[in-house]
Design brief:
Strand order of the largest sheet: 1-2-3-4-5-6-7-8
Strand content: 5-15%
Structural class: alpha/beta
Distance between the termini: 54 Å
Largest sheet: 8 strands, parallel
Shape: globular
Number of strands: 33
Radius of gyration: 38 Å
Number of helices: 30
Length: 1189
């Protein structure tokens, strides 16, 4: 006890000594704007705050910044927030604050940081009155539930940045638009379901609403940023206004073409009731076969109906027909008047009849389905002798007026997204294509053979409501917005089904099409094609000697390890073998069978990890938070005899394997989440919750960022994993039902909202469907279309807003209608394959919506300098990066192309200049076909065969020519000319490209050049310079073969000399590249003694840097890393200076030159040289070797 007191006293003494030292240092600062007192992470309590040195002292009166972050304060003294008149920056983050003082008086305070506390309330007006100059309010990571906007508009009038991320906010008040100066609004990870229109109409530069269950605007729109959200609401507003105008126009046309009337002198007794008489005559005219008595009874019923109150009509109800009385049509509509000719008014009827008859020319079909808004009762005529009797329209005129606007109203309906993109993935030959064929075409579908396996991607349209097999399945979308449901009625879901090839060589293309707004059906064959997962009966039957067991008599031998009585048997390990013991032998007593069962179990676990978990990781790295539905194929295999599974254990074994799949995937995800939570807690314990790494971990933990593994509810009697058989044709009803329930929102499981909330069933602007219709019309003629021509075609049908068209294309891409990549060509000259902040932040930010770029404005980390920093002061204490513990997650390795810039663009020229996609792939299969021409294991043979066919007219091809293409069978390098040759050799790719080029509008690049840039952007192509000392790629040397190919390649036509020399951009350098490296075609192989960190030369220095992946190395990591590094090196080192000469690009140290490039599937080695000036003025070379493994 004495020791603890002494230690506490020593700690307190050291704490006060440190505070006094910091106070002395702050007092010695001469310039007031540099006086910063940083008392962060000193384990201070509220009584340790040096109020005596701060309140009412010269230091306190001139203090510019005060930081108490990372201390266990619990509360803030009132004197501290009322006695610092010059304070401009106050940091109270991570202080465990539960409440704030009610009265503040900091007249100069501009930035207040209250993040990562326990606050539940938004600052009150009494507090804000003392903060008149507040610009930046950070309440990230609290428990605020309601945003209270002060009634006094003068308060928060200068607030520019408001950060309320990671709170408990469920709605945004419309009164937020009173904050006229607000520019950056961050409400990430709350419970928002709608972003009001008034919020989007504010003059915001960015808004972060990611990780919220937002459905209005749609999630895809919110991910693209505030400009896209503004355009969405603008289109919706115009649609609503257009609908109102359409109804008014319908009423006007129904009323007639002239509003004049005649004055008639008539006796009151002959008056037919005006509008009611017209409707009465119209109804009687529609049933001329009625007797006089029946007509009188009907007239009496109509007169009685007129006297009854009018029930309100729901918006979705069927409009009443004119056979009803006028009283049932509503009393608020204007009068209905027709043209003078053919009018059926009461005054035109013969006075001798009690009911008016219809003239002969009134033989038109009856008026039906006229909306109640159009049939509005006019004012009744008076009983005076002089009255205006309007000309009443005929039934034919009403019908014509309604039919004329029927099509217009049809286009004014509210539209919702009813299509979901479904992607089937899995290893090769697991039955994906057969499953899709059976699912869509039925039992008699033609199942592809082995030679007809999928190449690249196949795309199918699927509408289950049209299939009689699935009539019992409810495919209606469950709307979260009841008003939207009433407006648009029942809507059935449709699907765009994508079949992805499972071969490794095509994995590089998946990132071109993966998105988080898709359902991934992950197909697994349950290990049926992996014989090592089966128990071997031969082990049980190996010895036929009766010493062990006689299988014919069923009698154990003398030395059998069994007992006579079953009751004496110990508990066996049958659970390890799936329940049943093989061959009647007790598995617990047969060592070989026991060992064989464990071997099969381990093999099955490896099969799950390599064939299922691998794909989960691939999907998670490219589309974080995506929904994944595991499905088991080859179910019939386990029901057949002779599978080696055990007696009667076919279906039982299949269920056991599916349950193992579920348990293993969920356990792996649980372990990964626990690891992230543990690392995040370490940051919090160290008061480093604001570190960039902590923010990254926090984002990865959010449910919207975690993969949604969909399994059946076993408590409800559902199978955990759907099992199907393509040969026996069963299981497809259950698979269809599960897919439909996921898409419609009926399946929620542990999630509070539908899986595709904010995507399926959300309202979309009508013009997006107009764009879709035009795309479908053009698709028959064009597979790929140039951007300018595409805009001209849309302009011809009245679609002129370029930004809205871009939004529509991104939406159509998300539902699988086309492929559109937005800003692929960059204009700033940076390497397009590298993560860049000018395109939207870090890598994991660009993966489709789970971090900074996908949201509009990320939370600024402490390591980032704000361009709008207050007073221009640099807070060096906040800019220290954590470089000691570098850890990356498996979810943070995507290099998916970022979205387009959120700047406002309004013309075609702006889009072209900004580098927006030059082409739109109306048929994504054309893009896949073009990529499949290159990504193939027999690339070298295909090049030879294509060249032989093309040159057969000149000379036969000879393999002894000694050209570049003799290097290897699996060629990981291709020339730009050969890539163009392969594309032009295919009829479908050549014809589509030629047509797109023929119908272009100011085309800047050809379709194949753009395709080349696209593949470079996604890391499929890597420009490489082979005119170096050594280029060992995949175990083959390519540098020595460059001379051969240059000799056989004709020289290009000379270009005119330009007067002005412009630094070439990355895209221009890529277009001039002669060789492309294909990392996905690297064969297996390991570097043998390629490099070692040990060296004996004293002038050599070795720097090693390790990156820890706690969850395992992400799939395809080395391919992506190799692609990124080599692209950067190529862009930095290569520049065309003149004919036949290449030189390096100037760097801050000198000129960079690539000496050696060595690449394997799991490693790469670079040797770079940099020219530096020597002491004597001569140029020397500094050599750097980079090895990544």
């Amino acid at each position: 006890s004495n020791m603890s007191k002494e230690e506490a006293q020593a700690d307190q003494t050291a704490k006060h000594r440190k505070i006094n030292l910091l106070l002395d240092q702050c007092e010695t600062v001469r310039f007031p704007f540099k006086k910063k007192l940083i008392l962060s992470n000193l384990n201070l309590h509220v009584h340790d705050i040096p109020l005596a040195y701060l309140c009412g002292t010269p230091l306190g009166n001139s203090l510019h910044k005060l930081s108490l972050a990372g201390n266990n304060l619990g509360s803030i003294p009132d004197r501290l927030v009322t006695s610092l008149p010059s304070l401009k920056h106050l940091d109270l983050s991570q202080c465990r604050l539960h409440s704030l003082p009610t009265v503040w008086n900091l007249p100069q305070l501009q930035k207040l940081n209250l993040s990562n506390n326990l606050l539940r309330d938004f600052p009150e007006e009494s507090m804000l009155e003392g903060l008149p100059e507040l610009h930046d309010l950070d309440m990230f990571g609290n428990k605020v539930a309601v945003i209270t906007v002060p009634h006094n508009t003068a308060l928060l009038s200068k607030l520019e940045t408001l950060n309320l991320g990671y709170n408990d906010i469920a709605y945004l008040p419309d009164e937020l638009d009173q904050l006229r100066s607000l520019r950056y609004f961050k409400v990430r990870n709350n419970f928002l379901t709608k972003i009001p229109m008034r919020i989007c109409d504010m003059d915001l530069k960015s808004i972060d609403v990611s990780s919220n269950p937002v459905s209005v605007p749609p999630l895809e729109t919110c991910e693209r940023g505030i400009c896209s959200m503004k355009r969405y609401y603008q289109q919706v507003r115009l649609e609503d206004q257009s609908k109102d105008k359409t109804l008014e126009e319908l009423q006007r046309r129904v009323q007639g073409h002239h509003r004049g009337g005649k004055k008639h002198h008539k006796e009151p007794s002959k008056k037919k009731g005006g509008y009611g008489g017209f409707m009465k005559s119209l109804s009687l005219a529609k049933s001329p076969s009625l007797s006089k008595k029946q007509q009188q009874a009907q007239a009496a019923a109509q007169q009685q109906a007129q006297q009854q109150p009018n029930p309100p009509l729901p918006s979705h109800a069927t409009p009443p027909t004119p056979t009803k009385s006028a009283g049932s049509l509503g009393h608020n509509a204007p009068s209905m008047r027709g043209s003078s000719g053919g009018s059926a008014s009461a005054s035109s009827a013969p006075p001798s009849t009690t009911s008016a008859s219809v003239p002969t020319k009134m033989t038109a079909p009856p008026v039906t389905n006229i909306p109640p808004e159009a049939l509005v009762r006019p004012p009744l005529a008076t009983e005076s002798s002089d009255e205006v009797v309007p000309d009443t329209p005929t039934a034919l005129e009403i019908q014509q007026a309604y039919d004329q606007l029927k099509d217009e109203q049809k286009h004014q309906e509210i539209t919702v997204n009813d299509t979901l993109k479904v992607i089937f993935v899995g290893m090769a030959m697991v039955g994906k294509t057969s499953m899709i064929k059976r699912l869509i075409e039925g039992k008699h579908a033609i199942v592809p053979t082995y030679d007809e396996r999928t190449v690249g991607v196949d795309i199918y349209a699927w509408d289950p409501i049209k299939d009689k097999r699935f009539e019992h399945i409810d495919s209606r979308i469950e709307f979260q917005d009841k008003q939207l449901h009433q407006a648009c009625g029942d809507v059935d879901v449709k699907f765009s089904v994508w079949d992805f090839a499972g071969q490794h060589v095509y994995h590089a293309t998946h990132e071109l099409f993966f998105s988080s707004n898709a359902l991934y059906v992950l197909v697994w064959d349950m290990g049926a094609t992996n014989k090592s997962t089966m128990k071997r009966k031969s082990i049980l039957l190996r010895s036929t000697s009766t010493d062990y067991y006689n299988y014919e008599t069923g009698v154990a031998g003398d030395f059998a390890l069994t007992y006579d009585s079953e009751s004496d048997h110990d508990g066996d390990d049958s659970s390890l073998m799936g329940g049943e013991s093989g061959g009647g032998v007790n598995n617990g007593s047969n060592f070989e069978a026991d060992e064989d069962a464990r071997r099969a179990e381990r093999a099955l676990e490896r099969d799950i990890d390599e064939k299922v978990q691998f794909w989960v990781d691939c999907i998670q790295s490219s589309a974080p938070g995506a929904a994944i539905l595991p499905v088991a194929s080859f179910s019939d295999y386990f029901e057949a005899s002779g599978t080696g599974i055990g007696d009667g254990g076919g279906e039982t074994e299949a269920k056991r394997r599916c349950n193992m799949l579920k348990e293993r995937l969920l356990r792996h995800e649980q372990r990964r989440v626990q690891g992230i939570e543990r690392r995040l807690q370490e940051y919090k314990d160290q008061n480093r919750a604001d570190d960039p790494a902590a923010h990254r971990l926090r984002n990865l933990l959010h449910p919207s960022s975690r993969p949604k593994l969909v399994f059946g509810d076993e408590e409800k009697g559902e199978e955990s994993v759907v099992r199907v058989s393509g040969t026996q044709y069963y299981g497809f009803d259950l698979l269809t039902e599960r897919i439909v329930n996921i898409a419609t929102g009926r399946y929620k499981s542990q999630w509070s909202y539908p899986i595709f909330n904010g995507h399926v069933g959300t309202r979309i602007p009508r013009m997006r469907l107009k764009v879709r219709d035009e795309v479908r019309k053009m698709r028959d003629k064009f597979k790929v279309v140039e951007w300018g021509y595409f805009l001209n075609q849309l302009r011809a049908v009245g679609l002129t807003a370029v930004e809205d068209i871009s939004d529509a294309l991104h939406f159509l891409t998300s539902i699988g209608e086309l492929s559109y990549f937005g800003s692929i060509m960059n204009t700033n000259g940076n390497n397009s394959n590298l993560p860049r902040d000018d395109q939207g932040g870090t890598d994991d930010a660009r993966r489709g919506g789970k971090s900074s770029q996908s949201t509009v404005n990320p939370k600024k980390t402490k390591s980032q300098k704000s361009d709008d920093s207050i007073d221009g002061d640099d807070d060096d204490d906040e800019n220290d990066m954590d470089e000691d513990n570098t850890m990356l997650s498996i979810d943070e390795t995507s290099i998916t192309a970022p979205g387009t810039d959120e700047g406002s663009l309004s013309t075609v020229e702006d889009f072209m200049a900004s580098g927006l996609s030059q082409f739109v792939f109306l048929n994504p299969r054309w893009l896949v076909a073009a990529v499949a021409c290159i990504l193939r294991h027999d690339l070298d043979r295909e090049i030879k065969e294509t060249r032989r066919l093309l040159e057969s007219g000149s000379r036969p091809f000879s393999a002894a020519d000694g050209t570049f293409h003799d290097a290897s069978l699996n060629c990981p390098v291709i020339t730009a000319d050969d890539a163009l040759m392969l594309w032009q050799a295919k009829k479908i790719t050549k014809k589509a490209a030629e047509r797109a080029q023929a119908y272009s509008n100011n085309m800047t690049v050809t379709p194949f050049e753009f395709l080349q840039l696209l593949l470079i952007r996604f890391g499929v192509f890597v420009p490489i310079d082979l005119s170096i000392e050594k280029a060992l790629l995949g175990g083959k040397e390519y540098a020595k073969l460059v001379d051969n190919i240059e000799e056989t390649t004709p020289a290009p036509a000379p270009h005119p000399i330009e007067e002005i020399s412009v630094e070439p951009s990355t895209e221009e350098l890529a277009l001039k590249a002669k060789f492309f490296f294909l990392p996905s075609l690297l064969g297996p192989g390991e570097p043998n003694e390629a490099w070692t960190f040990k060296n004996t030369e004293s002038w050599k220095t070795t720097l090693c840097h390790s990156v820890l992946f706690p969850d395992g190395v992400p799939p395809g990591l080395m391919e992506r890393l190799t692609s990124t590094v080599l692209s950067a090196v190529y862009a930095a080192s290569t520049r065309q200076l003149g004919e036949g000469h290449t030189n390096s690009k100037a760097t801050f140290e000198g000129r960079l030159t690539v000496r050696e490039v060595l690449c394997w599937r799991t490693a790469f080695f670079l040797k770079l040289g940099t020219e530096v000036p020597g002491d004597d003025g001569s140029q020397k070379e500094s050599v750097v070797e980079i090895f990544a493994h």
